[in-house]
Design a protein that fits this description.
alpha+beta; 2 helices; two-stranded antiparallel sheet; three-stranded antiparallel sheet
């Protein structure tokens, strides 16, 4: 019973880690601290990483549905093709 519980916890953790992987895109060259919050991609696209705080975050809902590039457009995440 103890091993089943450990296995279930591990599977939940692994599933969350796989789900939290960010989609690829050119934004990764100029944005920082990317992460998924549900189906929304969140990143800081400030010019200097030290300026990243909650006021500088940008987000892109349904980021995994983007068929084109996800880019940093003047500090905002943008999908080039849905």
């Amino acid at each position: 019973m103890k091993y089943k519980l450990i296995l279930i916890i591990l599977l939940i953790f692994i599933g969350q880690e796989l789900n939290s992987q960010v989609p690829p895109g050119s934004y990764q060259r100029s944005c920082h601290y990317w992460r998924m919050r549900g189906e929304t991609l969140v990143a800081c696209c400030a010019n200097v990483p030290q300026n990243c705080d909650f006021g500088n975050e940008t987000s892109l809902p349904n980021a995994r549905s983007c068929k084109g590039d996800i880019e940093n457009r003047f500090g905002q995440l943008r999908c080039t093709k849905w």
